[in-house]
């Protein structure tokens, strides 16, 4: 399982039900990394997107039993979501609560590290360097694409 997020220096990933930061190249990277895979996300993240993303299977975690948009699989918990996702590659897609619950199950983190502090109300969990090893960093103007793998040992 891979978690994908754009994370500000202060950990912020979202504000008022939307992304805290947007960049065209970063969104294209996310598309490349997620096409053909299953996305697991929370209801508020899905609501901010507004529809299932083409070329990806979408599993949404929600406690709302009256919520059932077309084209998505609904799960009442993370364990139900992972069971519904099946055996293929799973992408944790947000928001903050979902990342918190999936971090211990993930093998890889694909993080856009934003070189600024942003205002927001959703945060990514702290990446513990004792548990995660940086394996790649591509620097851009104002941000970096960073891949982390679970540390062995």
Q: Name the poorly predicted regions.
A: none
Please indicate the percent range of residues in DSSP E strands (runs of 2 or more): 35-45%
Please give the domain count: 1
Assign the CATH class.
Alpha Beta
Overall residue-averaged pLDDT value = 96
- Indicate the structural class: alpha/beta
Order of helices and strands: EEEHEHEEHEHEEEE
3D structure, described in words:
This protein has 153 residues and is of the alpha/beta class. It has a single domain, classed as 3-Layer(aba) Sandwich (Dihydrofolate Reductase, subunit A), CATH 3.40.430. Helix content is 22%, strand content 36%. The protein is built from 4 helices and 11 strands. The protein has helices at 24-34, 43-49, 78-85, 96-102, and strands at 2-8, 12-15, 18-19, 38-42, 57-61, 73-75, 90-92, 108-114, 122-123, 132-140, 143-150. The chain has an 8-stranded mixed sheet with strand order 6-5-4-7-1-8-11-10, with helices on both faces. Strand 10 and strand 11 (143-150) form a beta hairpin. The longest helix has 11 residues, at 24-34. The radius of gyration is 15 Å and the shape is globular. The protein starts with a strand and ends with a strand. 29% of the residues are buried.
Quick rundown:
With 153 residues, the chain is an alpha/beta fold. Helix content is 22%, strand content 36%.
How would the blueprint of this fold be written?
Layout: E1 2-8, E2 12-15, E3 18-19, H1 24-34, E4 38-42, H2 43-49, E5 57-61, E6 73-75, H3 78-85, E7 90-92, H4 96-102, E8 108-114, E9 122-123, E10 132-140, E11 143-150
Parallel strand pairs: 1-7, 1-8, 4-5, 4-7, 5-6
Antiparallel strand pairs: 2-3, 2-9, 8-11, 10-11
